[in-house]
Specification:
The complex is a heterodimer of chains A (292) and B (238).
Chain A lengths: L1 H29 L6 H17 L4 H29 L5 H22 L15 E4 L2 E4 H23 L1 H11 L1 H6 L4 H26 L7 H16 L4 H21 L5 H15 L8 H5 L1
Antiparallel strand pairs in A: 1-2
Chain B lengths: L1 E12 L2 E12 L3 E5 L6 H8 L7 E6 L2 E2 L5 H7 L1 E4 L11 H11 L5 H11 L16 H13 L5 E5 L7 H16 L3 E5 L3 H7 L2 E6 L2 E7 H5 L2 H7 L6
Parallel strand pairs in B: 3-8, 3-9, 6-7, 7-8
Antiparallel strand pairs in B: 1-2, 1-4, 4-5, 9-10
Amino acid sequence: MLVQQLANGLFLGAVYALFAIGYTLIFGVLDILNLAHAAIFMLAAFVALSLVGFGFPLVLAVALALVFAGLLGVLLDRIAFAPLRRRNAGTLVPLISSIGAAIVMQGIARGVWGPDEHRFPSNGLSTAEFHLGSLSVGALDLIILAVALALMGILSYVMRSTALGRSIRAVAEDRVAAALLGIDIERTIALTFFIASALGGAAGILIGLQYNSVSLEMGARIELKGLAIIILGGMGSVTGAVIGAFILGAVETLSVAYVSSSYRDAIAFGVMFLILVLRPAGLLGKRALRAA
Amino acid sequence: MAILEVEGLVAGYGRIEVLHGVSLRLQEHSLCAIIGANGAGKTTLLAALSRLIPIREGRAIFDGREITHASSHAVARAGLVQVPEGRRMLAGMSVEENLLVAGEGAGGRTVGADVAAMFERFPTLAPRRALPAGSLSGGEQQMLAFARALMAHPKALLLDEPSMGLAPRLVETVFDLIAEERARGTSILLVEQNARKALALADHAYVLERGSISLEGKGADLLGREEITAAYLGEATP
């Protein structure tokens, strides 16, 4: 029972992590909270769903939806953040403009897909299950976990060992110093938005597949959790976000199993509150992104 | 021939105008010093030339190209590279990553070889390559700040108070390094509080006073002038 719940927590945590990484990357580079991140998460799931509906193979539909999410993130930066950045608008004004962008995206999604919950066509999804002792695991869950871990692995490699990752970390660390070294700040920010939004979109698609449900409300459900995760992990820290996401995933599934599903969020947020009382700056500070 | 020409440059922050029409020339392969009191606008001048702040009036021409409205990274890639005041380490990134990111930022094609060359030229940095730049001592950080700028193969360097906060022995090392870099053919615009050392080294020098050039001349000549001795070298006239 415990092992089963921890396995479920792992599947949930992996998807939370993808979502939270995008949040924390943008915070690390720009010091702003992008509250439109959850709207991109939701739109990517809808786009993947529609592409599957048009007859695209699932893998291709997911890949195209990820690119869509990334480009949407770049567009979001151009419209909602870049003009404010040029005017040195601080961090509070972009927060408001990201809420505005989220409302617009939510409205577009409602107009295109309607208010109802959608499901992926069942023929494309595997329902196979594997059994290992008392542990039972769905093939789909395993694929989702593998995809999430692979994306995190790629991100970790990019951030640590490529010119792009180094330039993102340099801009996060000191934008002026980076500019003096010849780094194109605006281009680096655009690429950060692409990566962050594609990861957020991946989380939306994977959660849509995991629960076989895509709806307008799915963004709102994960938004506060994502925020709590990155605060728990330490704002701007990618590793912290991953750790925080797995803690939240595990606490949620365990509280459903051992207490009651109605207390799930109360217990999850209670545990996070306790951790933050002990470590007010989060598990890992902002430096962690910069050191990757 | 001048590699950098500045004409009537006006710049500032917000509503405050700091520089009121500064004109100067940096000759190729030479060292030009700018001295002046705190708040005279020395750092603002370098910020404007690196395009960190807008140039409101006047123009700047570097290596035959107008950079008045260029972006910061374009100026650096054109070969006009600033070593900023306070060194501005990418403190959480390793020493080696600081060099790599500088070479990559400048669009270098020989980044790996350049990093190796820097570790050869600055041997104190080599054993610390994997350490966070923030863990280096002040002198080591200044070496890294130099090495980082040199990764761009600059035609000209803008140096902002390179000796600030360093022990006397290290100040010598830094000035030796500046002289060495000029001997290699790099043009240097040096902003310094340490006016005596700067003037002794400079081919040409300007005195910046409340946002305007008040005096210019050969470095050695300015060193002998009474008003300079009194105002910037901290000595009463004999």
